[in-house]
Every structure is written in structure tokens, then in C-alpha cells.
Design a protein that fits this description.
heterodimer; A: about 280 residues; mainly alpha; MetI-like fold; 2 domains; about 75% helix; globular; B: about 300 residues; two-stranded antiparallel sheet; 13 helices; 2 strands; about 0% strand; flat
Chain lengths: ~280, ~300
């Protein structure tokens, strides 16, 4: 009996399938458990958090922590985060799309060197940039402002989007644009009527990524912002006190910070991954 | 003007228009890079050659002094070592675990679509939130880890996993594996789906077992994606700041200080901009050596053309 037919035997196959389910269960347990714990703690009343050993299922679940999490300062941090992330995304995509088009479709001397520079910007140690950027923003009186943080983010989000969108454009057939040009469209006309619509999935992927990057960025936000201007990561972290911490409140706030990203990625994940794979392998 | 000359002239103009447009479109990106990356890097280099103190806030030029002092400081060796262990452990674990998970999720089972959609969650969870959750999990009184030990009958298992030098780095590595692996998984999964089925069938007909198929078909076919993901996870792990800052602040006893946390500490807790910038330049050199290798590979594969 060959190993092939043996492996296909019904008993062996059922055993193999059971192993698959066991492995999937263990994997998901590892990756999901911390979230389950976060939500469990968020649902516990203040007294129950310190029971030892802690229980996974709250004895007296309450939404009280979520109610107190939605306080004015949290909402202010959320507003800051939305403004910074939305502005960064809105400024990044048009600039990056034009550059990506240029680097994928137009021929000119130095194109390859520019592409190399774009890639190198993704490989820099970020900590080395914090100090001079801090000094530059201080000189321009932009510390603790939205503008200062958005400018800083653009330095990273524009190159990475150029790189992603270029990979996407390289994968599109040039013939469509050429056909439009023979029809009498100008190059720029073809860009808006043909390239932009065709690149929409790539744009969605890049925009999702940029929004996500600026939503969760920590190092620069921590160094440049304080107090009322803090974004969510910095604001929520400030709930951890030197001596006392309201853990239930902290976990409820953490859950609220995660939810928007989870919702976005749940729906856009497929485009995002496809865009990323295409962008990274082709360019 | 002859007809051929006219054609040549037209082609020439079309080319210069194309080049002009090309430069015009990349200009904003190049300006951003020059103003916000190259400029600050030059500034950081200049500042690495100076020293200032609380009493003497105006930076004084000191030449290579900061570098000389760093190289003679035992802390330097410790940071290089910790950064290397941290980066290698996290990157290798993410590669192996990420690929294994991708192979698993590529099989058919019930609920596969849901599992694939959920698996990305740790990666999209903001870094600070991930760190806060792991701080709770590793906490000696709040966390399920020590709770589990208590449940198993260990007396007084209140171990502060992040509070002792022997276990702190390990605790960080596990948190980073949890946070980063899902990204590798979904990317490898996408790559696995593009492996041609005919190749796998042909290998099976030739008598290749699961392991042989993995080695001679699946891994070579997904190599371009593996290479890119490796580069990214190396850079991201090297740069990772939020996890370490929130979980251990580089402690206890500096046992988890890597380049980013140490630079931040020097610059913003001790306002030693000179030495902090010098550390930054050294980090830059380390990552650049690695980047050049990557660029060289991209060039060889003609991906940039």
C-alpha cells in the first residue's frame, strides 16, 4: 500500500482533521485570550478586580466602567486622534499617488535612485529622528499642535504609501491608459479617468494603513504632545498612576480604542492584505 | 524639416514632457524626505558631536568625545546585546510561528473565514493597548498567568514576570510575538494561496511527502514574500518602543534597554541630547548596513527597474 492511499484512508483523515481543529483552537486561544481578558476585566466591578486568583468570567458584570470611560478627557483624546489620523491620511494619499504614478509609469533619469531612497526611508531607526524633530518643531513653535505631529507623520506615511501604490500600479496593465491616450485623452486626463478608479483598491489599502499607523503611533506623540492635546495612546496610558490605577476603567478605555480599528480591518482586511502583498513583492 | 527629423523631434518632446511631469510628481515626496528625514538626520549628526548640560545648556562642540565615551561604557555592549537578542528572538519566532499558522489556516476546516478575519486582531491592536493588556496578564496579582499557577496548586505564585531581570526580556518577547505574528501569518497565507496547485499536484505524483513539498515547492514559491516580511519585521522589532516602554521602561536594572528606549531615556529623562544623538547615529549605522544588503538584493532581482 502506498503512503498516498494510506494517508487518504478515512480513519487517518479523521484523525488528521481532529489535529487541525485542535491546532486551530490552540492558536486562537493564544491570540484571542488577551482580548477576552481585557473585556472580562472591563466588565468587572471595582471590588472584583483584585480577587486572587482572578476569574475569567466576572461574577457581577457591569457596564459601569464603559460609562465612566466615555468621560470628557477621553473624548478629547479621541477627537485629537481622529483629527491627526484623518489629516495625515488625507494629505498622504494624493501626494503619494502622484509620486507612485510617476515612479511606475513615467520614464526619466534618476527614477531608480528615487525609488531606492523611498525604500531606505522605511528602514530608518525612528528614535534617532525624535530628538532633531523635537528641536525643529520647537523652533517652528509647533510642539503640542496637530500640525506638528501631522507633518512628522507625513515623513513616514508618504514614502510607505508611494511604495505600496507603486507596487499596485506596476500590476495594472498599461494598455488601458495607452488606449485612452490614443482616444485623445491627455496623459493627465487618463490619470484621473483611468488610473485613479483602477487604483481604488490600492488606495483603500494604503489609506487604511496610513490611518492605522497614525491612530496607534506612540513614540512621536509621546514626545511632542501633552495634556489636552494627547492622542488616545498617550491619554489612555496616563490612566496608569504611580500608586493607584483604576484597572477596570483602563481596560474599558482600551477596549474602546481597539474597537474602531477592529471594525475597519474586519471589513477592509482582504483589500488591505492584497494591496500589501502586491505592493511589497512588485516594488 | 524632413519627415524623419520631425518624428524624432516629436519623440524627443514627448520624452522631455514625460520626464518633466515625472519629476514634478515626485517632487513633493522628495521635498518631504529632504526636509523631514535628511535634514533631521544631519541635525542629529551635528548634535552627536556636541555636549550640553543643565548648567551649560548651550551645546559645546566636543568632536568624537561622545562616541569615545559610549564605546568605553559597559552599558553600550549591554544595549547592543539586548537589542540583538530581542530582535533575533522576536523575528525568528514570528517567521516560524507565522509560517506554521499560515500553513494551518490554509487547510480546510469549519469556521475558517472567521478565524482568518480574527487572527489579524493582535497586529491591528494599537501598540500601547497591547502593552497595557500584557502588563495586566504578567501582573503578579491581577494577571491570569499567576492565577493559573495558583489554580494548579503552586503556593504564593505571585511572580512579577516583568519585575525581575531573568524573566523580563522573555515576557517582552512573548508579548511581541503575540502582537507581531498575525501580520506575518496573513501575509504568508496570501502568499500560500498563490502557490500554483499544479506544482503541488506534480510534486505529490512524484511521491513527495508533506515535508518534501514544503521544502521544494512551497518555501521556494513564497520566498519573495518571506524576504520582504523578514526585512520589515527586523526593522519594526529593532524600532519597537511602545511595548518595552509601557511594560518595563527598559528595566529592571536596565536589563531590557534597547536602542530606542535608551535613546529616549537619555534625551527626554536626562536631557543628554549629545550622547542620545550619538547612540542614534550608531543605531542608524547598524540598520543601514542591513538596508544596503536588502537594496542590493532588490537590485539583483530587478524589482526597482
Amino acid at each position: 500500500m502506498s503512503s498516498q492511499s494510506f494517508a487518504a484512508g478515512p480513519g487517518r483523515q479523521r484523525l488528521g482533521q481532529a489535529a487541525v481543529y485542535a491546532a486551530v483552537f490552540l492558536t486562537m486561544a493564544f491570540f484571542m485570550f488577551p482580548f477576552v481578558w481585557m473585556i472580562s476585566m472591563a466588565l468587572k466591578p471595582a471590588g472584583e478586580v483584585f480577587d486572587f486568583p482572578p476569574s475569567l468570567v466576572p461574577a457581577h458584570p457591569t457596564l459601569h466602567n464603559f460609562q465612566s470611560a466615555l468621560n470628557p478627557s477621553f473624548l478629547r483624546y479621541a477627537l485629537n486622534s481622529v483629527i491627526v489620523a484623518a489629516a495625515t491620511t488625507a494629505l498622504t494619499i494624493p501626494v503619494a499617488l502622484l509620486s507612485a504614478y510617476s515612479l511606475s509609469r513615467l520614464r526619466f533619469p534618476g527614477r531608480k535612485s528615487i525609488m531606492t531612497i523611498v525604500i531606505i526611508t522605511q528602514l530608518l531607526p525612528l528614535a534617532v529622528l525624535v530628538i532633531p524633530m523635537y528641536q525643529i518643531l520647537a523652533d517652528w513653535h509647533l510642539l503640542n499642535t496637530y500640525v506638528g505631529l501631522v507633518i512628522t507623520y507625513l515623513a513616514f506615511t508618504v514614502p510607505v504609501s508611494v511604495w505600496l501604490l507603486r507596487g499596485f500600479l506596476v500590476g495594472l496593465p498599461v494598455e488601458l491608459e495607452e488606449a485612452a491616450q490614443i482616444d485623445g485623452s491627455t496623459r493627465i486626463g487618463a490619470f484621473f479617468r483611468i488610473v485613479v478608479p483602477l487604483t481604488a483598491p490600492g488606495i483603500a489599502a494604503a489609506a487604511t494603513y496610513v490611518f492605522f499607523l497614525s491612530w496607534q503611533e506612540f513614540l512621536f506623540a509621546l514626545s511632542f504632545l501633552s495634556g489636552d492635546m494627547s492622542t488616545l495612546p498617550i491619554g489612555v496610558l496616563s490612566y496608569i498612576g504611580e500608586h493607584t490605577t483604576n484597572w477596570g476603567l483602563l481596560m474599558a478605555s482600551s477596549t474602546l480604542v481597539c474597537v474602531p480599528v477592529f471594525v475597519v480591518f474586519f471589513f477592509l482586511q482582504r483589500q488591505f492584505i492584497a494591496g500589501l502583498v502586491q505592493g511589497s513583492v512588485k516594488g | 524639416m524632413s519627415v524623419t527629423n520631425q518624428r524624432r523631434w516629436q519623440r524627443h518632446t514627448r520624452r522631455s514632457v514625460e520626464a518633466g511631469l515625472g519629476y514634478f510628481f515626485v517632487l513633493p515626496t522628495l521635498l518631504l524626505i529632504a526636509l523631514l528625514l535628511v535634514g533631521p538626520l544631519v541635525k542629529a549628526f551635528n548634535s552627536s558631536l556636541t555636549n550640553s548640560s543643565f548648567i551649560n545648556p548651550v551645546p559645546q562642540f566636543v568632536g568624537w568625545d561622545n562616541y569615545v565615551q559610549i564605546v568605553h561604557d559597559p552599558m553600550f555592549l549591554q544595549i547592543v546585546q539586548t537589542t540583538a537578542i530581542w530582535t533575533m528572538a522576536v523575528v525568528i519566532a514570528q517567521l516560524v510561528l507565522g509560517f506554521a499558522t499560515a500553513l494551518l489556516l490554509n487547510r480546510t476546516f469549519r469556521g475558517r473565514a472567521l478565524v482568518r478575519a480574527l487572527i489579524i486582531m493582535p497586529w491591528v491592536c494599537p501598540g500601547v493597548i497591547a502593552a497595557i493588556i500584557w502588563r495586566v496578564i504578567d501582573d503578579p496579582y491581577l494577571g491570569p498567568l499567576d492565577g493559573l499557577l495558583a489554580w494548579l496548586g503552586v503556593p504564593h505564585p505571585n511572580i512579577a514576570w516583568l519585575g525581575q531581570p531573568q524573566t523580563a526580556l522573555g515576557g517582552l518577547v512573548i508579548a511581541a510575538i503575540w502582537k507581531g505574528t498575525p501580520f506575518s501569518t496573513v501575509m504568508y497565507l496570501a502568499a500560500l494561496q498563490s502557490v500554483p496547485a499544479e506544482l503541488l499536484e506534480a510534486a505529490t505524483i512524484d511521491g513527495a511527502g508533506a515535508w518534501a513539498r514544503l521544502r521544494s515547492v512551497i518555501i521556494p514559491q513564497t520566498m519573495p514574500v518571506i524576504r520582504v516580511i523578514l526585512v520589515f519585521t527586523i526593522v519594526w522589532t529593532f524600532n519597537s518602543f511602545d511595548l518595552i516602554y509601557v511594560l518595563t521602561q527598559g528595566g529592571p536594572a536596565n536589563s531590557t534597554q534597547t536602542f530606542p528606549t535608551w535613546i529616549y531615556k537619555l534625551a527626554f529623562s536626562e536631557t543628554d541630547f549629545g550622547p542620545a544623538s550619538a547612540y542614534g547615529m550608531i543605531a542608524l549605522l547598524l540598520l543601514m548596513a542591513f538596508s544596503l544588503l536588502y537594496i542590493w538584493q532588490l537590485n539583483r532581482a530587478r524589482i526597482l527597474d
